[in-house]
Design goal:
Rossmann fold; 11 helices; binds S-adenosylmethionine; alpha/beta
């Protein structure tokens, strides 16, 4: 289990820079639930968000459930989630995907966002089946590095070129340095997870779910720094170069390299970071299942 999210530095970045899930994702999940769950009045009693971080999925579903419980193994993520929580019907608790602190047959919808690639999946599926109601639904979703599209670059060919190059760097930096399991699941967009779910009804969606965010350069760099891949890489490099000066660190700090690249290649050296504008497109992939076997 990666424990990088225990660290307070990353959980503070997380709550500020990680995207909340947008309505297109919520709608797709609820459509599946409505199609497959029988008892209409009782479908929206309890949702659990497993590995909730600072509540990026729990808060997105807030208005659709009477009660939502977000659980995460990291006490610091839970601390940030509680601080940011604006809703009476959402509670956050420390807990793990392999040992969910909820009773049997209690959950209508179990959600896990950008996280299940890290779980012990066999134990998680056993726990999911235990806590879910017999006709309950499960939604596992994630995104990889977002596509970055510069604004204020008028020439379409140039914009495309800069978009490809900048996204390419982010894709390279997004890979988890030492977590092969996560890389495999994320690279195949959870296809292997989908295949390993035994359920009466299931669906795998990989297209047309795009969350668009308007970002400036500060937000792009904040997002990069909130990635486990970035944090793990920095930790590894600092251990290898214990006596490195601040100037030397800047030569391999990926946040500094990406920022320098954007300022230089987008020809915005004179522009403040907060005024370097872009769109970030997150392509979400989604596994849905109902009546786990
Ligand atoms: C990339 S974050 C995702 C947070 C949030 N769900 C989101 O979509 O932004 C992954 C989270 O999974 C948590 N996590 C990892 N393994 C876990 C496990 N086995 N049980 C519970 N939480 C876990 C980490 O602490 C971290 O907060």
């Amino acid at each position: 289990m990666i424990r990088v999210y225990e660290n307070e530095d990353i959980t503070k970045l997380y709550v500020e820079f990680r995207p909340k899930f947008q309505e297109c994702v919520v709608e797709r999940v609820l459509k599946f639930c409505n199609e497959h769950q029988q008892s209409e009045n009782d479908n929206q009693d309890l949702m659990v968000d497993v590995a909730c971080g600072s509540g990026q999925a729990a808060s997105a579903f807030q208005k659709h459930f009477k009660r939502i419980v977000g659980i995460d193994v990291s006490t610091n993520q839970i601390k940030e989630a509680r601080l940011a929580n604006e809703y009476d019907n959402i509670k956050y608790e420390v807990g793990t995907a392999e040992n969910i602190p909820l009773g049997e047959n209690s959950v209508n919808l179990l959600v896990s966002a950008t996280a299940c690639h890290r779980f012990d999946l066999e134990k998680f599926f056993t726990e999911a089946k235990r806590v879910m109601k017999p006709d309950g639904c499960m939604a596992l979703f994630s995104y990889n590095a977002p596509r970055i599209i510069p604004k204020n670059v008028k020439d379409p060919a140039r914009r495309q070129e800069l978009s490809d190059k900048t996204t390419g760097i982010l894709v390279k930096y997004h890979d988890i340095v030492n977590d092969e399991q996560s890389n495999v699941h994320q690279n195949n967009k959870y296809q292997d997870i989908y295949k390993n779910i035994y359920a009466e009804n299931k669906q795998w969606i990989t297209e047309d779910l795009v969350m668009k965010r308007d970002w400036n350069l500060e937000q792009l760099i904040g997002f990069l720094r909130s990635l486990a891949a970035y944090q793990e890489y920095m930790k590894m490099m600092k251990e290898e170069h214990k006596d490195a000066s601040e100037e030397e660190v800047k030569k391999w700090d990926r946040a500094v390299l990406l920022r320098d690249f954007v300022k230089r290649e987008w020809e915005m050296e004179e522009v403040k970071d907060e005024d370097v504008m872009m769109e970030a497109h997150f392509h979400v992939y989604l596994v849905l299942a109902n009546k786990l076997k």
